[in-house]
Backbone:
């Protein structure tokens, strides 16, 4: 697994008996994303799929829409005092004519769910920057197909089996076929990696697809799905109020607490059949 996992020695206590043993942990390291040499964002992530993560992040920022919008992505050497390459700093070169990220506060604050600046302006920002509308996507998903997705997602999580410490995002067809799965310590990073994969495979907009996530559905995840043109987002846990507001505003189908045959449909009930 390379830098995805790392071994640490632990003391395991079972019924008062202590035993020393090795344990496999998920690696967490910072990734700095730069555009034309200018720092744009720093995120804590699990190494692997970094180029997809950067590409997906730029899709969710509204900077790029097609793979040709990106001229190159490279790791930056010299990121440390001794000049070595940590593989934790990426620089993205945009194609000629592609505008750089908007530095204004209005374009930056709605990206991060922890910023505490959420409300009508956040919804307006996504509505005005989204390249595609999901409201007009006529896809229908059978409820039995949707109910099977959490197990499909879990079965495909290779690193989670070893560590128990990763979120997952899986992109499925309406018929339940897994197209792409990515794992990361950050649920938003896992989604960015899926979207970045789709961008580089010329798959945007992701019409007639379902995004399944292993945790809760935050505003940030709904926003990323909207920006990628995904009409259906399902989560095994709860959504936030602003996530529901945004999904309803944009015409997305949002499902939470998807566990077995039970689920809560918060918006877009018309796409679920059976």
Residues:
């Amino acid at each position: 697994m390379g830098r995805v996992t790392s071994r640490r020695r632990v003391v395991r206590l079972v019924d008062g008996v202590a035993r020393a043993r090795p344990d496999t942990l998920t690696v967490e390291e910072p990734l700095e994303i730069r555009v034309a040499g200018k720092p744009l964002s720093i995120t804590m992530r699990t190494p692997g799929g970094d180029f997809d993560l950067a590409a997906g992040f730029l899709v969710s920022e509204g900077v790029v829409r097609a793979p040709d919008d990106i001229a190159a992505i490279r790791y930056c050497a010299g990121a440390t005092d001794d000049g070595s390459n940590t593989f934790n700093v990426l620089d993205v070169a945009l194609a000629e004519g592609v505008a750089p990220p908007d530095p204004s506060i209005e374009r930056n604050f709605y990206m991060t769910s922890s910023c505490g600046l959420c409300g009508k302006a956040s919804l307006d920002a996504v509505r005005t920057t989204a390249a595609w509308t999901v409201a007009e996507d006529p896809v229908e998903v059978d409820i039995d197909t949707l109910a099977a997705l959490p197990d499909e997602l879990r079965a495909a999580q290779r690193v989670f089996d070893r560590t128990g410490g990763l979120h997952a995002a899986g992109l499925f067809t309406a018929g339940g076929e897994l197209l792409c799965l990515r794992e990361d310590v950050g649920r938003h990073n896992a989604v960015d990696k899926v979207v970045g994969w789709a961008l580089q495979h010329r798959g945007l907009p992701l019409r007639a697809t379902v995004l399944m996530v292993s945790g809760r559905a935050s505003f940030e995840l709904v926003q990323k799905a909207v920006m990628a043109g995904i009409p259906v987002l399902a989560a095994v846990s709860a959504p936030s109020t602003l996530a529901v507001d945004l999904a309803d505003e944009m015409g997305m189908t949002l499902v939470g607490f998807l566990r077995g045959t039970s689920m809560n449909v918060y918006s877009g009930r018309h796409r679920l059949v059976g």
